Structures are given as C-alpha cells and as structure tokens.
Amino acid sequence: MEIGTNPDYDQAFTAALDWWREAGVDSAFVDTPRSWLPEPEEPKGPAAKAQGTRQLAPAAEPVAPPPLLLPDDLESFRTWWMTAPELDHGGTAGRITPRGSVNPALMVLATTPEGGDRDQLLSGPEGHMLDAFLHSAGLNEADVYRASVLPCHSPGADWSPEANRVPTEALMRHIALVRPQRLLVLGFVVLPLLGHGSPQGPAVSDLFNHEGSPIPMLAVRRIPAAASQPRWKAALWQAWLDWTA
C-alpha cells in the first residue's frame, strides 16, 4: 500500500483491519502480561535516601471532649438547665425547668417535657395521669420531684449514649443533687444512659448506683396514648406494689 504526502490514516488502519478480518484473525492473545505504562524512574542522590527513610506519620489520637462544668447546688443547676447552650446543641427555646424539693420520697424522670408544656413540667395529659397514680400511691406534691432527661419536647430524639454525652452527665449530676429516696423512670430509652440495659417486660426494678449511693429504681414504659392507658396503669400499679412491698 502506497501512502502519499497527505495520507488518510483512518482509511489505512481500516483497510489493514479488514485484511486480517478476512483472513480469519480478529483477536490477538499472549500469555505474558505486558505493562503499557513506562516504568517509574528510580530516585537518585539525596532524594533516594530521603525516600528510603520516610515513615508514615502516626495516626492522630482521638481528642477527648472538654470536661463539662456543672453546678454544685440544685438551684444553680436549674439555672444552668435553662440557659446552658451545650445542653441542647446551642438552643434554649422551649425548655421547661424541673420542679420539686431536695431529698424527696420519689424522683420521677421523664424522657422529655410534654408537647403542650409551657410553664410547668408534665402539665398535660401524661402529667395528669401521673398525678392520679401518685395520689393513689399516697404521695402528695411535696413528696415528688419531677424532671426530664432532655430540657425541651424532642420527638424523634436520638437516645444512643454516644449522642447524649452532655445530657447524661447532666442527668447524673441532677440525681446526685436531688438525692431522692426512690427513682421512677418513665421510658426504657433512658436506662442505657444510666448504665442499664433495656428490659423486655413492662417494668423492671433495679438499683441506680451513683458515687457509692444505691437508689431503688423502677423503670416502666413511657406514658402511652389514651387507647393503651388501662393496660399501662395496671402494669405500673402492679410493679409499684411489688417494688414498695
């Protein structure tokens, strides 16, 4: 094949491929692998020595979060609870303060305030059902301290211990400052924050150990919707009788 001064390489390659295809050859195989990239050049001189002694930098150690500075008395803690930005990712709107006195007969611990709470914690339907139960148990307002794990109503909250480092530390300090004689937990999602596993039954009694002072603890499911109230109240009442017997 003659190639002129202005060759058409596309036509030439096509003609060559057609020739081999007519001869029955359409593929070529070899047993030895071949690299189509040029081999990298070896560094020479000081650069080669530096490369030979180069070491990977050690992995950075995880940085521990700074310690949480919490108040040492209950009134200061309540003020911190309403204003501390680190407690709720910087937001303070919608927070409800705990209520009650130090060293009560019972500390009730809810997951969050009710959706309709404005000036008082557990003032809606759940709180009214709780008040009726406490009255039946022979407890008056002065005997009970009401608190929540999170400061504001938080539907769909992530309750894993990893996502609740600050609320967990605050919860431990809160219980220590209140010094309750008994602890009633409304919601099994709180138990992992207190160092306990989630039970399978409707209620579980155990001890909450904090700084060498065990506190009798009863944990029950969250206060349910109206359709499930009779079964919840019956389970809570039976668990309460067994717990206080």
Taking the sheet with the most strands, its summary is: 5 strands, mixed
Question: What is the approximate shape?
Answer: elongated
CATH topology of the domain at 81-240: Uracil-DNA Glycosylase, subunit E
What is Rg? 35 Å
Please report which band the strand proportion falls in: under 5%, 5-15%, 15-25%, 25-35%, 35-45% or over 45%: 5-15%
Strand order of the largest sheet: 2-1-3-5-4
CATH class categorisation of the domain at 81-240: Alpha Beta
**Per CATH, which architecture of the domain at 81-240?**
3-Layer(aba) Sandwich
Helix proportion: 25-40%
Instruction: Quickly give the structural class.
Output: alpha/beta
In whole angstroms, how far apart are the ends?
A: 109 Å
Q: Please write the string of helix (H) and strand (E) elements.
A: HHHEHEHEEEH
As residue ranges, the low-confidence spans are: none
What is the average per-residue confidence, as pLDDT, rounded to a whole number?
Answer: 85
Q: Total strand count, please?
A: 5
Query: Count the helices. How many?
Result: 6
> Would you identify the CATH H-level superfamily of the domain at 81-240?
Uracil-DNA glycosylase-like domain
Describe the protein's architecture and organization.
Helices cover about 30% and strands about 10% of the residues. It has a five-stranded mixed beta sheet with strand order 2-1-3-5-4. The protein is an alpha/beta fold. It comes from Novosphingobium kalidii. This is Uracil-DNA glycosylase-like domain-containing protein. It holds the Pfam family UDG. InterPro entries: Uracil-DNA_glycosylase-like, Uracil-DNA_glycosylase-like_sf.
